[in-house]
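Q: How would the C-alpha cells look for this protein?
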Amino acid sequence: MPIKIPNSLPATEILENENIFVMTENRAMHQDIRPLNVLILNLMPTKIVTETQLLRKLSNTPLQIQVEFLMTQSYVPQHTDISHLESFYTTFDQIKERKFDGMIITGAPLDHIAYQDVSYWEEVCGIMDWCKTHVHSTLHLCWGAYAGLYYYYHIPTLDLDTKLSGIYDHRVIKKNSPLFRGFNDIFHAPQSRGITVSEDDIRKVPQLEMMATSDIAGVTMVKTTDSRHFFITCHLEYDSDTLKQEYERDLAKGLNPTIPYHYFPDDDPNQTPIVNWRSAGQLLFSNWLNYYVYQSTPYDISKVD
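A: Here is the predicted structure in C-alpha cell form.
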C-alpha cells in the first residue's frame, strides 16, 4: 500500500520523482474501500495449473480481491474435469451484464493457428469488445496479448523460425511508469512461444506505448496510453518447473525441442532450474492491481465505462 503523508510535505514531490507512490492525507480521507472484482478468462488447457499460478500472484497484496473464472461457451475444455468447470467457472452469458474492475485473458496453445480458425475466436472477440465498456483494466497474457493486439489494432502476428523457450533479459523502457515500481532496469522473464509481433508495427499505433523489450525475445510489454489494456508476451506467472515440463512434453512428442535458453544450470536438463524471475512477477501483478485497477477504478463499479 502507499505511504500516507501530509499534502504539502516537501518530500512529496521528491518521492514522486523517484517513482515512489505516495498518497496525500486529503486523498486518503476521501477513499472508500471495497473488494476488487477481477475476472479471469482462462484459455489454457491445464486450467488448474494456470489458476494456481495467477492466484498466487494476485493474492500477495493487501487489497481485497474477488476473483471469478470464465470459460468459453463455444468450446468445452477437454483437459479439465467437467465437475471442476461446473463448480468454479462461469460463462459469458452469465456475466455479460456485469462490470469488473480488472480482467485477465490468458494465453492458449494456438501459436500457429490463424485466429479465424480458432474454434472460439468469435466468442473471444465478443468478450474483448465487451471489455471496452465493462472492464476498467485488462491484462492480456501471451496468446491473449497477440490476440488483443490483432483484434483491437490489426497488428499481425509473425511466426518464429524456432520456438522461443527459456529465460531472457528484458529491458524496461518506461522507467517512471508505475507498472515498473520496484523493478530493476533489466529483469529476467520466461518466454514460451512460437510467434511474435514487430516493434515497428507497435510504434505505428499512437494509442500504444512500448513498455519493455528484449534484444532476443523482442516485444515484451505494451500498454494503451489510457492504461485500459496491457499486453504481456512473457510468463512472469510461471512456476520454477513450468518450462521443464513443457520441454519434457515436447521431447515425448518427438518434437526435438531445443533446451530452454538460460534455464537449466549449465544447460543440463538433469539439474534443477534456479528461479530468477519471481520478484519481477510479483511486482508486475501487484503494480497492475494497485496503480491501474484499485487506484483508478470507480468506487461504484456500475460506473465503469
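Residues 1-5 have pLDDT under 50 and may be disordered.

Residues 140 and 248 are 27 Å apart (CA to CA).

Upvote if useful.
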